[in-house]
Structure formats: structure tokens, C-alpha cells
Design brief:
The protein folds into three domains: 85 residues, Rossmann fold, CATH 3.40.50; 65 residues, Dna Ligase, domain 1; 204 residues, ATP-grasp fold, B domain (D-amino Acid Aminotransferase, Chain A, domain 1, 2-Layer Sandwich), CATH 3.30.470. It contains 13 helices and 17 strands. Strands 9, 10, 11, 12, 13, 14, 15, 16 and 17 form a nine-stranded antiparallel beta sheet that branches. The chain has a four-stranded parallel beta sheet with strand order 3-2-1-4, sandwiched between helices. It is globular.
Length: 397
């Protein structure tokens, strides 16, 4: 963009979830108006937008209505048909673009892009059909993870295969053998921890990275993000460099979440990408001089990108449907150093992200202690404790 999008203009948002909600709340400060397209009435983003269009993402007439009412269009999640976005690009500016969406929502294309960016990834083979799968089993070391190329999130569309001997049985159980759906088979990585980095880039090539987080998952859903990641500075810098390489390779305009595996020897492998704000970047809303949401809006609207500075250590904890009762009980006694973010979803369901808490403190350990005191979540498992001990070893090596 030759000049930044002026205040008063309208940004269309494909998707009405919590990411759209937080984007809109930040965009209000910048003077923008918002219209949201989402199939669910009273969506989290729709609640804070100027208008919500109720319709499916693949409804061409609703997409055209969004284009008519918008000066610029963004998407807040990737489970949208890239052809819809490609059509919108002919109507109005869509800075993130359909190409980025098509690449990051398809695991095979995503892995190929990462290889092209010369960043390390787990060994993998992609294919479709039973014959390809049999060939892949001959090339990959087990245990391995079988993943559908599209549609997987929070552990869905993934199967762990412990050995080559049981691979065909699991293959048949998945139902993939009855389709020509593309999949990837990749070696399981014995990582110490998962890191993630948010990287932003605008259309003139300015690139900024946030401090990496260390992520703890439960049942394949993000549980905690610790920021800055409690590993040595050189590892955090290496993670940021890899994220920058990827942003340049993809010619990113917007923001990208880069998920990584940290190995015990200090090597870092890139796992997956998210072409929008990411759950692990929520800490930036309260702990940084510029949040991931403002940074994305700056990138897509043509504003210069500031260097994001961490003001304080933080730990973000996800509140799922099963945590709602405990959260409401703990609410009156929450520490004033804990920030509350509630998404306004109508119904609490098992595994559904209802909100999050961000604890702020001088150190990650103190922030973690603040969240522990709420008694909202179950105590750490032995595996999580072992991971913490391993990280101390990595940090002190």
C-alpha cells in the first residue's frame, strides 16, 4: 500500500472467532470499522464489530456482500477455501492473500515451503492412496505420525503409528484408504519442548519477531504459553531467525505463527505454520509494547512495524469449556496481576476455548505461580514436570 489505510475505513473479517474479536478490539484504537462474515449469529467477533454478515464461508453471495461493505479484507483462521479468498482478491485488497492460505492450510505444501526456506523439519513423505502409504512406510523410521493434509487442528486428523508392523492396520482404521485424500507421514520427534514464534511482515519487507514462547499442551490443545521461553538466549534468537527466513520465503504480509520443536541437543525443527494470530501469541496483548493483533493490522494496512518489546514476563493459560465452573468460582479472588480475556461464546463445551488468563510478573516462574494459585486447572503431570527439569538443563548448558 502506498499510504496507510486511513481511520474510518472498514476492514472485512473472514471468521468470527476469538482471534477476530481481539483483532477488532485492537483495530478500534486505530480508528477502523469492521464487518464480519461468520455462519454463527452472535459470534465472538460479531459482538464487537460494526456489523456481522451471517453466512457460510463458501457462500459466494455472502462473500461478495462482505467485499461490497469493506475497503480491505483479512482472514482470522485458515479453514476457508482459498478459491473464495482468490475471488475476493478480485474485488478488494486481501493483503494476506490466497496463496499464503493455500500453502499453510495444506500440510504437504507447507512442508515443501519450509524445505524451500531452508529451515530444518522432521523427515516426512507425502502421498495419497494405499500404494503411496506402503512406499512411505519403507522410507520413514517409526514411530511416526500420519496426518491428513487438510482439516486437522488441536490433534484432529493425526494418528500415531508405533511400528511398521501395525502401520497398515492403523491406515485402514483411519479410512484414508477409501479416498484419494493427500496425507503426510513424518517421523515422530523426541523433542524437549515446543516453542513458537510470532513473525510479522508488511508489503515493503519490514519484518519483526516477538519473543518465543514455550508451550505446554494437554490432550493436543495448548494449555500454557510461557514468555519469554525459559531457554537460553541463543536458542530464542535461533528460533526468531528461522521464523524470519520463513516469512521472507512466503513473502508474508500479515502475521504468522511458527511452531517448532526444541531437541535436547539444542537443535530446532519447524513443525507447523498458522497464517494469522496464534493462541501462543496471546501473551503479547498484555505483556508487550505492541500486541500480535496490532502488529498484524499494521502489516496489512500499510503502517510501519515497531520493534515489539516485552515489558514483563507472562504466562498465558487457556480456559476451556471444562474449566468454566472453576474459573467463575476463582474469579472473585484472582490476583490483580492476572488479566482476564473472555470470548463471549454462547455454550461451554469440552475442549472448546472459552477464554484465557495471562499472569504478569517479573519472572516466568512467578507468573506460573500466580496461575497455579487459582486452582482452575489440574496440577502438572509427571511428564510436564520432567519437561520442566529438562528445560532447566537446556537453559544451563
Amino acid at each position: 500500500m502506498n499510504t496507510p489505510l486511513q481511520p474510518g475505513n472498514t476492514i472485512g473479517v473472514l471468521g468470527g472467532g476469538q482471534l477476530g474479536r481481539m483483532l477488532i478490539l485492537e483495530g478500534r484504537k486505530m480508528g477502523y470499522r469492521f464487518v464480519v462474515l461468520d455462519p454463527a449469529s452472535n459470534s465472538p467477533a460479531g459482538q464487537v464489530a460494526d456489523e456481522q454478515i451471517i453466512g457460510a464461508y463458501d457462500d459466494c453471495s455472502k462473500a461478495r456482500e462482505l467485499a461490497r461493505k469493506s475497503d480491505l479484507i483479512i482472514y482470522e483462521f485458515e479453514n476457508i477455501d482459498p478459491l473464495i479468498v482468490e475471488g475476493l482478491e478480485k474485488e478488494k485488497p486481501v493483503p494476506q492473500g490466497s496463496k499464503l492460505l493455500a500453502t499453510t492450510r495444506h500440510r504437504k505444501l507447507e512442508k515443501e515451503a519450509l524445505v524451500k526456506a531452508e529451515v530444518p523439519v522432521a523427515p516426512f513423505v507425502a502421498g495419497s492412496g494405499s500404494r503411496d502409504f506402503q512406499n512411505a512406510c519403507e522410507q520413514i523410521h517409526f514411530p511416526a505420525i500420519l496426518k491428513t493434509a487438510t482439516g486437522g487442528y488441536d490433534g484432529k486428523g493425526q494418528w500415531r503409528i508405533a511400528s511398521r508392523e501395525i502401520a497398515i492396520d492403523i491406515w485402514q482404521e483411519t479410512g484414508l484408504g477409501t479416498t484419494e485424500q493427500t496425507w503426510i507421514l513424518e517421523e515422530e520427534i523426541p523433542f524437549v519442548a515446543e516453542l513458537s514464534v510470532m513473525v510479522a511482515r508488511n508489503d515493503i519487507g519490514e519484518t519483526r519477531t516477538f519473543e518465543p514462547t514455550l508451550n505446554i499442551h494437554r490432550n493436543h490443545i495448548l494449555h500454557l504459553s510461557l514468555a519469554p521461553a525459559p531457554v537460553e538466549v541463543s536458542l530464542r534468537e535461533k528460533a526468531q531467525k528461522l521464523a524470519t527466513q520463513i516469512a521472507e520465503q512466503l513473502q508474508l504480509v500479515g502475521i504468522l505463527g511458527v511452531e517448532m520443536f526444541l531437541l535436547e541437543n539444542g537443535e530446532i525443527l519447524v513443525n507447523e505454520l498458522a497464517p494469522r494470530p496464534h493462541n501462543s501469541g496471546h501473551y503479547t496483548y498484555d505483556a508487550c509494547t505492541t500486541s500480535q493483533f496490532e502488529m498484524m493490522l499494521r502489516a496489512v494496512t500499510g503502517h510501519p512495524l515497531p520493534e515489539p518489546t516485552v515489558k514483563t514476563a507472562a504466562v498465558m493459560g487457556n480456559l476451556l469449556g471444562e474449566h468454566q465452573e472453576n474459573f467463575l468460582a476463582a474469579l472473585p479472588n484472582l490476583s490483580p496481576h492476572i488479566k482476564i480475556h473472555w470470548y463471549g461464546k454462547n455454550e461451554a463445551k469440552q475442549g472448546r476455548k472459552m477464554g484465557h488468563l495471562t499472569a504478569l510478573a517479573p519472572t516466568v516462574e512467578e507468573a506460573l505461580h500466580l496461575l497455579d494459585q487459582t486452582a482452575i486447572w489440574e496440577p502438572y503431570t509427571n511428564i510436564e514436570k520432567q519437561m520442566m527439569d529438562l528445560l532447566k538443563g537446556v537453559q544451563n548448558s
